[in-house]
């Protein structure tokens, strides 16, 4: 079966616009290397008229941030009757909200750090100092603070001293109206990507992330720099198997489709902790999914083409 007209969607207006454009260009170039008729389009005000004039056979969304990961753009594609790669809108909404995703995977049997999610208003109405004191008393230190919705580690902080928590909350609320504060687990940070073949999820080799300061922040993710990526991750066989199982379990429990990336921490004792899942993994030169694809002796272009073929309407 051959692919007809394909559109790669990238850009948008989120904080992650530039990363999305880089991802979109890489996917587009990969598909063109296979002579797939593909064009890259921005998710802007001209998009719907463009899709109506020249309707593609299938769309590959590579949108990061809210519109690309909360299901809204995918919902519009469904309204238009255009097939697309990736999770459906309802599953995206669950995965996009980190506290909800944590609750779902916990019910599926996965470990996830103890946490509390609170909106900005709670700190304002009940007194920030009092609320933070209770958080510290309940969860202890160290803590990890991040927006309940968002990606690319924007607005995230590790808090090792109580005096640093107020600044972490301010940084978090710069990127969202609610914060997820969770117990920080020391260990090996890994990402396990899942790609579906014939409707069955298959985990790719785990990618271990090693940063000089122990923080896999925005700069560490997208600037080659000093971040080291080790694939496959340096885990004991039993821990590696548990990480693989956790990623597949999360993919299934959250009702995801086609591809996903699950971020995990593996403790020194080998216990695997779920952190979050991404329904639109990055595709840049430094992104984790392409590294896992290469480690599995697969070709990015082939994987992207096969995902499109799975979604193309016969």
Description:
Strand 1 (6-10), helix 1 and strand 2 (38-42) form a beta-alpha-beta unit. The strands form 3 sheets. Strands 8, 9, 10, 11, 12 and 13 form a 6-stranded antiparallel beta sheet that branches. The protein has a 4-stranded antiparallel beta sheet with strand order 4-7-5-6. The chain has a 3-stranded parallel beta sheet with strand order 2-1-3. The longest helix is centred in the C-terminal third of the chain and has 17 residues, at 237-253. It is α+β, with helices and mostly antiparallel strands and 314 residues long. 39% of the residues lie in helices and 22% in strands. The chain has 13 helices and 13 strands. Belongs to the D-alanine--D-alanine ligase family. The active site is at 16, 152, 287. Cell wall formation.
Query: Which outline best applies?
Result: globular
- What order do the SSEs take from the amino end to the carboxyl end, as H and E? EHEHEHHHHEHHEEHEEEEHEHEEHH
**How many domains?**
3
Q: Rg, please?
A: 19 Å
Mean of pLDDT: 92
Oligomer: single chain
Task: Give the number of DSSP strands.
Answer: 13
The CATH topology of the largest domain is given as D-amino Acid Aminotransferase, Chain A, domain 1
């Amino acid at each position: 079966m051959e692919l007809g007209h394909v559109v790669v969607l990238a850009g948008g207006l989120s904080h992650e616009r530039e990363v999305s454009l880089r991802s979109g260009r890489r996917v587009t170039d990969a598909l063109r290397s296979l002579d797939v008729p593909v064009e890259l389009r921005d998710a802007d005000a001209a998009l719907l008229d463009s899709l109506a004039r020249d309707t593609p056979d299938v769309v590959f969304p590579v949108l990061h941030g809210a519109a690309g990961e909360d299901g809204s753009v995918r919902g519009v594609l469904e309204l238009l009757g255009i097939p697309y790669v990736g999770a459906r809108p309802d599953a995206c909404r669950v995965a996009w909200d980190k506290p909800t995703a944590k609750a779902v995977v916990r019910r599926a049997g996965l470990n996830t750090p103890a946490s509390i999610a609170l909106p900005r208003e709670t700190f304002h109405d009940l007194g920030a100092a009092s609320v933070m004191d209770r958080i510290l008393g309940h969860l202890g230190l160290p803590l990890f603070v991040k927006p309940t919705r968002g990606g690319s580690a924007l607005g995230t902080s590790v808090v090792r001293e109580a005096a640093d928590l107020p600044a972490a909350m301010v940084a978090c609320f710069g990127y969202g109206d609610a914060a997820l504060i969770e117990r920080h687990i020391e260990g090996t940070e890994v990402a396990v990507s899942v790609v579906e073949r014939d409707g069955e999820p298959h985990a790719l080799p785990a990618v271990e992330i090693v940063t000089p300061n122990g923080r896999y922040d925005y700069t560490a993710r997208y600037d080659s720099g000093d971040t080291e990526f080790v694939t496959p991750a340096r885990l004991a066989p039993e821990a590696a198997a548990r990480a693989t199982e956790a990623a597949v379990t999360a993919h299934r429990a959250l009702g995801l489709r086609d591809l996903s990336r699950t971020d995990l921490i593996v403790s020194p004792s080998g216990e695997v902790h779920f952190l979050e899942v991404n329904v639109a993994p990055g595709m840049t030169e430094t992104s984790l999914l392409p590294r896992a694809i290469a480690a599995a002796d697969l070709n990015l272009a082939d994987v992207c083409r096969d995902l499109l073929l799975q979604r193309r309407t016969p």
